[in-house]
Design brief:
With about 375 residues, the chain is of the alpha+beta class. About 30% of the residues lie in helices and about 15% in strands.
Length: about 375
């Protein structure tokens, strides 16, 4: 049945779930062998959830109860390089792959910055048609990589999740991503309006692949996964066996600790030890290039990150997948779950920052 048309797949699978990576073929992302360059956190003996109360929507709730009732499957928190908390639920553990959904977009944005820093992309202000020539002689010749990075391209694409007839389910479950890209139209001139659209990321990653001459999963492996000493073999889901295009707008699947390591990279402004992974100018531009782009909760959007006025930033995916980063307090929190429970997780992360910031100096690290 699932080998049939895309409509059957959409109706059969229906809504997205935390284990969707099992449904799709994938490109692999390999770490270095364990004896080479693996980054290790400082590991306290006690990494359990702290016994504290969280205020959410006017109610005081113990953190453990909040996470369980919201179907949180992974919660990890680090201060500096110390892994203070590591919590898993509902059959998940430290070796479980976690579906990132749109958290993957922040990886794509980072890779674009790396490619620009290496000269593989001349400028993020290059037209996308420089890389995808089959879009030439169309309105796309005015759409730049920067427009795609900031969700200001003006493409005609509806980011609806509730309707089976929206193009978004077809992009997610469909078996021919390249065909959908080839049929895209422009609705508005670029840079007129912010509109969150996953197709921006898909176009961006396909342009990146053309620029660097390899699939994005291999570029991720070469530029981030192995240099950061990741420990898991990650997967990045592709459209189908006939169309191996990576679904880069979503669908990177990795373990919690490796998402935490990626957060550490941005916590340190693109530095990994003494190595500059993401160009400093690109990191600075990420904070500055927000314009009037605001998500549904009012957070600024730039270069595939959500940015707060104090310099904190976060990656976000449907069902409540988050990498939260406070570079000034040197805190990273990873939360993955089966639902976001319609909560404002940013407020929860803010409350947790106060605990982790003070606890890291007094916690027993032996």
């Amino acid at each position: 049945m699932l080998a049939g048309c895309d409509t059957v797949r959409i109706l059969w699978w229906n809504k997205a779930g935390i284990d969707d990576y099992r449904k799709f073929p994938a490109g692999k992302v390999y770490p270095l062998p364990a004896e080479h360059n693996r980054f290790e956190f400082v590991m306290p003996a006690d990494r359990r959830l702290p016994d504290i109360i969280i205020n959410q929507q006017g109610f005081d709730v113990p953190l453990h109860e909040l996470l369980v009732t919201t179907k949180t499957v992974a919660w990890l928190a680090m201060k500096d390089d110390t892994l203070l908390t590591e919590f898993y639920e509902d059959g998940f553990d430290q070796s479980s792959l976690l579906s990132s959904f749109s958290v993957a977009k922040s990886f794509v944005g980072s890779l674009v910055g790396i490619a620009a820093g290496k000269g593989q992309i001349r400028s993020v202000d290059q037209p996308v048609t420089d890389f995808l020539p089959y879009l030439k002689d169309t309105a796309f010749k005015k759409v730049t990589l920067r427009h795609l990075l900031n969700m200001r391209s003006g493409i005609d694409f509806e980011e609806g999740y509730s309707s089976f007839f929206s193009p978004m389910p077809k992009l997610y479950y469909g078996r021919n991503v390249r065909e959908q890209v080839g049929n895209l139209q422009i609705a508005l001139p670029p840079d007129v309006k912010y509109r969150y659209q996953s197709m921006n990321t898909q176009l961006l990653s396909m342009a990146l692949e053309a620029a660097v001459g390899m699939p994005i999963n291999r570029y991720l492996q070469q530029m981030i996964w192995q240099p950061l000493g990741m420990e898991s073999e990650a997967q990045w889901s592709s459209a189908s066996r006939s169309d191996t295009t990576i679904k880069s707008f979503c669908c990177l699947n990795a373990i919690g600790r490796d998402y935490l390591r990626f957060g550490r990279l941005w916590m340190n402004g693109g530095l990994w030890g003494q190595s500059r992974i993401i160009p400093e100018w690109y990191v600075n531009e990420t904070y500055q290039d927000t314009l009037d782009s605001k998500d549904s909760r009012g957070y600024a959007y730039s270069h595939h990150w959500r940015i707060l006025p104090d310099g904190s930033l976060f990656a976000k995916g449907v069902l409540g997948q988050y990498i939260w980063i406070n570079p000034h307090k040197k805190i990273v929190i990873v939360r993955f779950g089966e639902t976001d429970a319609n909560l404002d997780w940013v407020k929860i992360f803010r409350q947790m920052e106060g605990y982790y910031f003070s606890a890291s100096s007094s916690k027993n690290l032996l």
